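Q: what does this look like with zinc ion bound?
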Amino acid sequence: MESPLSSLFARALGLESPWYVDRVEFDDEASRLDLHLDFMVGGTFACGVCGRPECKAYDTTIRHWRHLHFFEHEVFLHAPAPRTRCPSCGIRRAALPWARSRSRFTVPFEALIVGLADRMSLREASRALGEHDTRLGRIVRLHAETANAAVNVDEVAPLLDRFGPASGSSLL
Ligand SMILES: [Zn+2]
């Protein structure tokens, strides 16, 4: 049974069945919020390679993703990421609604990276986000190459205004 706080964060993340927020941990001293996700027993997933829906989980690995800040708190997602047994592709990572395969950032966080890099140098973005600039550069190049439709800089523009060089604010 989800607590009201868990279901609030599940809605904020746009999670859909079988995913839910199992546990929420606030650490005020560390300014950190950890959201532990899980999925319902018997839940099915889309194959991460061909997108075929309703594949059963074969096994899982706990993975971690950095997400957008929640006020001054750094936010991290943790979840048992499934591999599925896809009839066409074999055993492959399942598609996750919040992140690209192999990324350690959520899709909204990658959109923030791309948007920041559009407005400031990678070094400045690196300082603002507390992430290494080569890591940020990889994300920016990847999205430039694939023109990923999931990332729309206009949609995150209101977020970026908080972090522009003129705003004098910082994510840290
Ligand atoms: Zn497949």
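The pocket of zinc ion is lined by residues 47, 49-50, 52, 86, 88-89, 92 (CB under 6 Å). The radius of gyration is 17 Å.
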